[in-house]
Amino acid sequence: MLLLGRTEGIFAETAGGVTVAVARKLIEQGRIPRDEEIVLCITGNGLKTQEAVSDAVEKLVVIKPSLEDFELLVEKTPEPALV
């Protein structure tokens, strides 16, 4: 989950993290060629399993569910809020 968030900006649920971890392991084992493009289907979002990354996030930010509050957060946050 953390790798997806940090490198791709995707806040996936734990199943998405497992998908990436297994793909990485298969590439390291040579079972998936390192130089080929692959597609991983990440369908669930991290809002379902926030506790899985809560230790890695320094400060949780709670906002109202509005675009205005989100935009204000993004404007004043020097780095991504979830990674």
Keyword list:
single chain; 83 residues; mainly alpha; 3 helices
How would you characterize this protein structure?
- This protein has 83 residues and is mainly alpha-helical.
- 39% of the residues lie in helices and 0% in strands.
- It is built from three helices and no strands.
Q: Overall pLDDT, averaged?
A: 84
What is the count of DSSP helices, taking H or I runs of 4+ residues?
3
Percent helix:
25-40%
Through-space gap between termini: 10 Å
Radius of gyration equals 15 Å
What composes the largest sheet?
none
In percent terms, what proportion of residues is strand? under 5%
**Which structural class matches the secondary elements?**
mainly alpha
User: Can you tell me the overall shape?
Assistant: elongated
Order of helices and strands: HHH
Brief digest:
The longest helix is centred in the first third of the chain and has 15 residues, at about 15-30. Helices cover about 40% and strands about 0% of the residues. The protein has about 80 residues and is mainly α.
Task: Provide the fold topology.
Layout: H1 2-8, H2 14-28, H3 67-76
